[in-house]
Amino acid sequence: MSLSGDYLGESHEAFLDDNEIREKINSCKKYISEGNTYSVKETIEEVIQLCLEYDFTEDGLFLTNTLLDIAPYNSELWQFKGIFLNNLFEFEEAYHCFVKSVSLNPTDIDTLLNKSISEDNLGMFDEAVESLENALKSEPYNEEIFFSLGVLYEKKEMFTEALDFFLKAVEIDDKYSDAWYELGFCYENLEKYNLALESYDKYLEIDPYSFTGWYNNGIVHSKLGKFDKAINSFELSIALKEDFSSSWFNCGIVYSKLNRMNDALAAFIKAREIDPYDETILYSLGQTYEEMGDMTQAIKMFTAAIKLDEEYFEAFLARGYCYDLIGKYQFALKDFNKAITLTNDSVDAWAAKADLEYSLGNLQKSIASFKKVVKIDPSNFEAWYKLAETYIEVGNWLEGMKAFDQCLNLKPRHANSYYGKAKINFLLSRTQDAIECLKSAFCIDPNIKSEFAKEYPEVKSSKLYAKLLGDNQ
Prior knowledge:
The chain has 473 residues and is mostly helical. It is 77% helix and 0% strand. The protein has 29 helices and no strands. It is elongated, with a radius of gyration of 35 Å. The model is unreliable at 1-14 (pLDDT under 50).
């Protein structure tokens, strides 16, 4: 019952469909049930190979166990059993099979490679590295071993270390496409984008029909700000695999950066058709509708994103902005509060809440929110300035003065902060201090003089004002 003559061509590639493989498996099981296992051992081994190739995992495991009953010291069979168990996610049992196989044949490269995979699945990083290093002792110029070492370090996000192994792999085999691909990924994560592009380009020379290759190429072009090239790469990826939502999505992102909003919208809609349960796509759709001024559709998309992820901070914040723009202030406030509960240290959420509370006339609440902003981000000039002005409105002049001082610490030549201090000093009857602040404000921005004249006509016309300001009028 040899398979080589009937089912293998000159290239030794099988031409079997699933029914034919099933027929071969059932024939083997029949021989086994009739007690003829030993006489058809070679046939069973060939069928095991087919089970490996075509993912008939459970049948392959059964046949392998049957042969191990009569050949318990066959290292290859123990390796096959380990592979089948790995495919069944029985990693612990698979590991012991590979250990047994290595004990019977310590220098077999395939077994050591598979043992390292099993160890990796069990989180045994050091042991996996040791298995591959042992393999290198037998074959120091085996590019697959170097590649496997690179993958181990890459999974640990040790990209610099991984690079060394992938570079050795392509040094041995310049056409090793997978190694070029992973080199690109490592360089990308190390933000060495030009080297990443070179690696992806090399990969695409070898495999020009890889939709993921063109996708990654587009991502790197986008990170480099080469948006036209990025779009070209994403469109090639889509041409090769039209239902690849990631390329449609990122194409939409780049269109947005180029302000091609109609194209961005069409790309995001297509991405959503392919993957309707991706909240990030819905969020991006919402952003696009918002940018185009369609707040109703934007709110609808943000709401759909929130239904998929009830803790989607960005969606709550974005929907709150939209509600604010259309005058639904209570809905907006509810969303800003929800965003704050999801991430208490968000400057954007607290600032949005503070601005809205100010618009609603809740000045004390607005002050509390602005204070939270500057506590999280003491360098936030805008928040300090708004806090200072709000303190003035509620009559808390001393705290307002302190806030303006913080503004001037951050921006020493901010004319309006000096003007704000001047107004507080006038209110506190500190005329000399007020005039000094006015001098600074006028010196930095002479246009403030006209604003001052409108707000304080009686001071502007006084002799004291003229005397103190002198030539600065």
